[in-house]
Amino acid sequence: MKKLLLFSLLATAIFSFSSISAEAASNAIGLGNYPVQVVAKKNTELKDERGNIIKTVSKGEKLLLKALKGTSGVINYSSKEAYIPLTDIHYIQLVNGSKIITSDEVAAKLKLVSQMYPSLTKLKMIGSSVEGRSLYSLKVGTGKKEVLMDASFHGREHMTTNVLMEMIDTYLKAYLNGTKIGKYDVKKILSEVSIVFVPMVNPDGVTLAQGGKVKTSMTKLKAMNNNSNNFNRWKANINGVDLNRQFNVNWHLIKTTKPSFKEYKGKAPNTEPEALAIKRLIDRGDHLAYISYHSSGQLIYWSQTKSKFSRTKKLVKGVSSTTGYKVMPVTKKNEPIAASEDYFTKVKDRPAMTVEIAPYAGEASVPLKRWNNVWKQNKTVGLYIANEARNW
């Protein structure tokens, strides 16, 4: 009886080790319309769902990853699903910044890199949008110190998401390959200071502005859009609230209007789940600096810290030097009003800025033709901020 029990336990252990578990299979994460080309880091085995070896994949062989299951990647092989350990492959290109990046793509790609590089990244769900889309932060690096960067507070400003996703893509590859980006030693910097990225604060608004499918009735949305069908200009969240007018810093000074495609502050501070998620991230975090990316004007807005003024001023000038963007003066006419950057400065007394990445685009999204120049200007901004924070 003891021998039979021992054999049963041993067989169970062997099967569990060599196969994809039922739980993992049921929790598959599909990459949908965003498969990723990967390359084998070493000779590794491709298995079926029972753990049987199908073939040996040679180092350098390219595959198309279509989904994730547990710690394995899923590919199609001979018209069937096959599995390969995520730790045995590298992605070749995570995103293409010259094209629109959707909320679904952001979610899929962040999950991919977090599982592919678990020792180098940490993915957190920090909240949900009005329509239930997940809001994520991804920490890149092993450094105990942290800086924070976010994007797409405004729906039509989704090119800012492209910037942060390209940073994640580029910085990870440089870290893993031990290469520099410009003058920056990426591995050295991120081993001391991690960067926390929130690539899309407003996924509902972005989806609407990109022409995607939303749950909210179009009749309601059209009424908030001045009866226009032009949703490319939409800035607000899906409730018609401007998320960057939701923070409790001189919120009362903003003229009360009504739900709209832009500039409505809401009934009170932090009523919207997306703004509340960022507030909580700021409150609970120990980020040494903060950059919020917006898209139109090639300007840098900032607020004066009380005890870290010289540090803030140096950081703002450094980002200006890197990007070529104009630094806006801090005056009475330009006093902090209800933006996330203003809130960070108020509660943390640390450097923060709002960076507008492209020439003024009017009531519209920044044209994709601007991408190459935008990326060139911003490629090293995250590394610059993290590198400065090493000495704080």
Automatic annotation (TrEMBL):
Keywords: Hydrolase, Metal-binding, Metalloprotease, Protease, Signal, Zinc
MF-aspect GO terms: metallocarboxypeptidase activity; zinc ion binding
Co-factor requirement: Zn(2+)
Recorded coiled-coil stretches: none
Species this protein is from: Solibacillus isronensis B3W22
Entry-linked PANTHER family: PROTEASE FAMILY M14 CARBOXYPEPTIDASE A,B, SLL0236 PROTEIN
A GO biological process held by the record: proteolysis
Pfam families named in the record: Peptidase_M14 (PF00246)
Listed name of the protein: Gamma-D-glutamyl-L-diamino acid endopeptidase 1
InterPro entries assigned to the protein according to its UniProt record, in alphabetical order: CARBOXYPEPT_ZN_1, Peptidase_M14
Signal peptide residue numbers: 1-24
Record EC number: 3.4.19.11
Domain Peptidase M14 stretches: 99-392
Keyword Secreted: no
A GO cellular component entry from the record: extracellular space
Entry similarity comment: Belongs to the peptidase M14 family.
